[in-house]
Structures are given as C-alpha cells and as structure tokens.
Amino acid sequence: MSSGTGDPRYRLAADNRRARFDYEIGQTYEAGIQLTGTEIKSLRGGRSTIGESYAAEKGGEVWLFNAYIPEYLEANRFNHETRRPRKLLLHKKEIARLAQAVQREGMTVVPLKIYFNEKGRAKVEIALARGKKLHDKRQSEKARDWTREKGRLMRDKG
Fold first, then answer.
1. Can you give the residue ranges of every domain in the chain?
2. Helices (H), 106-133
C-alpha cells in the first residue's frame, strides 16, 4: 500500500526519513487524515514535519500525535493549533490489527510520510515498527556505507 515516491501523481507534504534508521519497519498502511481547511493549505506549502510524531489507538480510533503543521499565515483568527492530535481514518479491522500489534508484540505505529494522492486528498503512510537497538543501527549504517562504496567502485571501474 505504498505511495510510490517517484510517481508524479503523488506530492509529498512531509517525510519522516529518520524512521527507517530508528525503526525496523513492518507492515505499512495508508490512512486518511482529518484536517481543517487551514491545515490543508499549510500542508500544500510543504513546511510540516512528522519527525517526532507517532500514532496511537485511543477510544477505538487511531490518532496522530505531535505532528507539526505550521499556521497558515493568511488565515487570521481562524487558524489551527500547530501540534493538535489529528484523527486518522482507517477501517475497523486495520485499527484492531494495529492495536493488537502494539499491545501484544510491543510495536510502535510510526508515520512515514504525509502526501497528496491523485485526487488531491491528504494521506498518511503509517507503519508498524519495532525500535532498533544501537548495534542494529550500526549494522544498517555499515550496510548502507558498503552499498554506497560498491556503487562508487562499479562506477569508477565500469
């Protein structure tokens, strides 16, 4: 259910690049997000961040916490709160699956990116993730460095 980053139909509004380094990403889900008008306009500007945000189940619904969407400058007194909890729109089975994984397996629900689909609707790609330990981070960094070095060698010799 990923959104294909190279696809021109999708416009990225916010990206959590740190998540792939800090977490071992499992299954991903595409969720709608309930926003106000000023939040949508501000998201289209592309200055929002989801680096420190997380999603959690509360009252049978999934909420996105600590996502920063800056105030829309042209919207005087009708502006939104920048870090308010935002409701994610998922099917009941998906919500149950996420809640079960968090409770039983100790996983975390991490937002990977916020983007606009081909219809212009704001979507959030969330993933079930397990936190990496320090040695896992070192291992992934070593593998990334090796692939970079391998690419350099192939380019220089080939």
1. 11-132
2. none
Blockwise average pLDDT, block size 10, the chain, 158 residues: 53 89 91 92 88 92 94 84 94 94 90 93 93 80 89 85
Closest C-alpha among 27, 23, 49, 37 to residue 114: 49
Of 81, 132, 107, 136, nearest to 29 by C-alpha is: 107
Q: Superfamily for 11-132? A: Small protein B (2.40.280.10)
Query: Cα dihedral angle (135, 138, 140, 145), rounded to 10 degrees?
Result: -160
The predicted structure's pLDDT at residue 9: 57
Q: Which long-range contacts (CB under 8 A, 24 or more apart) does 70-77 make?
A: 70/42, 70/45, 71/38, 71/42, 72/38, 72/39, 72/41, 72/42, 72/45, 74/41, 75/37, 75/38, 75/41
User: Are 124 and 33 in contact, with CB atoms under 8 Å apart?
Assistant: yes
The pLDDT of residue 3: 47
